[in-house]
């Protein structure tokens, strides 16, 4: 995929964009790229991202120097993420070229992403508007911190719970994430809060980055969300845990009190109309900053 029409003249001669594949070479190259950017991704994190979405890689003389991926959820909505440019290649228009190509893959869908402060201006130039914020909480859990009590009935999800979880997720997110949720449930533990024999909230905890990530967390209120998060805090003592929460979740101070301080913040941005939320459930923690 030539980029002469996208990149400025000084960046054109030896750079090409091409689709990302699930080949070992592409995954390992993406891993090296994310490490150079200071991102704590594992090879398996890249595999899952590629399996669930579509991506573009930038190459110079056979070396991967940039990436951008998107994840469609139905015909009307998608998220974008893993937009990385190698440090030595920044400032040459490569990020703009990658974003141009990956947005073409989303077609007419509304698109949401999470931006660092450095990327906000670029995304605004593509028609993205600020929608909210996401706050990353991260720490190695310790028994020295007070562990939340188990006040609500939390249990491990069963196979016959899956359809109820998918319906809850779609009502909370506004789009069908069936394929993504199915993949994540195969890679982690799933817990539910039960009411009258049926799940009324759920959360996934899975290997990611430096340890484990809790998310998504979908519930109708903070008490159910805290019960689910507390369950995974108690069952993962001594591990590095990460959770990414929307700015309006109301969970930040509570997470800090449990020993998970805030370590970073990004801006949620959207181009187009976010799908309508159709039920009482809310997203209390993201699946990831890329997946939403």
Explain what this protein looks like in three dimensions.
The protein has helices spanning 24-36, 43-52, 94-105, 120-125, 162-173, 178-187, 222-235, 252-257; strands at 15-19, 54-60, 63-73, 77-85, 110-115, 129-140, 154-156, 189-195, 198-208, 211-219, 240-246, 262-271, 282-285. It has 292 residues and is of the alpha+beta class. Strands 1, 2, 3, 4, 5, 6, 7, 8, 9, 10, 11, 12 and 13 form a 13-stranded mixed β-sheet that branches. Strand 8 and strand 9 (198-208) form a beta hairpin. Residues 1-5 have low confidence and may be disordered.
What is the third-level CATH name, the topology of the largest domain? Aminopeptidase
Q: How would you classify the helix and strand content by structural class?
A: alpha+beta
Domain module tally: 2
Estimated radius of gyration: 19 Å
In short:
This protein has 292 residues and is α+β, with helices and mostly antiparallel strands. It contains eight helices and 13 strands.
Write the layout of secondary structure elements.
Layout: E1 15-19, H1 24-36, H2 43-52, E2 54-60, E3 63-73, E4 77-85, H3 94-105, E5 110-115, H4 120-125, E6 129-140, E7 154-156, H5 162-173, H6 178-187, E8 189-195, E9 198-208, E10 211-219, H7 222-235, E11 240-246, H8 252-257, E12 262-271, E13 282-285
Parallel strand pairs: 4-5, 10-11
Antiparallel strand pairs: 1-2, 2-3, 3-4, 5-12, 6-11, 6-12, 7-8, 8-9, 9-10, 10-13
Helix pairs in contact: 1-2
């Amino acid at each position: 995929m030539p980029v002469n029409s996208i990149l400025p003249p000084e960046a054109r001669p030896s750079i090409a964009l091409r689709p990302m594949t699930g080949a070992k070479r592409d995954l390992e190259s993406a891993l090296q790229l994310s490490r150079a950017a200071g991102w704590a991704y594992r090879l398996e994190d890249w595999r899952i991202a590629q399996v669930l979405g579509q991506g573009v890689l930038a190459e110079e003389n056979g070396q991967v120097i940039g990436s951008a991926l998107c994840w469609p959820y139905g015909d009307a909505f998608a998220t974008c993420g893993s937009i990385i440019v190698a440090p030595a290649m920044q400032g040459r228009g490569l990020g703009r070229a990658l974003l141009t190509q990956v947005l073409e893959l989303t077609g007419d869908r509304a698109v949401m992403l999470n931006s660092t402060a450095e990327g906000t201006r670029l995304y605004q130039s593509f028609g993205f508007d600020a929608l909210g914020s996401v706050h990353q909480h991260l720490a190695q859990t310790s028994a020295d911190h007070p562990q939340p009590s188990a006040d609500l009935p939390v249990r491990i999800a069963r196979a016959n719970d899956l359809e109820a979880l998918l319906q809850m997720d779609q009502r909370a997110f506004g789009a069908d994430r069936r394929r993504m949720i199915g993949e994540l449930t195969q890679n982690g533990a799933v817990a539910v809060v039960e009411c009258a024999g049926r799940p009324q909230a759920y959360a996934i905890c899975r290997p990611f980055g430096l340890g484990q990530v809790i998310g998504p967390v979908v519930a109708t209120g903070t008490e159910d969300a805290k019960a689910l998060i507390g369950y995974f805090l108690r069952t993962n003592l001594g591990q590095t845990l990460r959770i990414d929460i929307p700015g309006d979740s109301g969970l930040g101070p509570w997470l800090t009190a449990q020993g998970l301080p805030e370590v970073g913040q990004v801006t949620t941005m959207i181009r187009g109309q976010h799908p309508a939320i159709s039920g009482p459930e809310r997203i209390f923690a993201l699946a990831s900053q890329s997946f939403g």
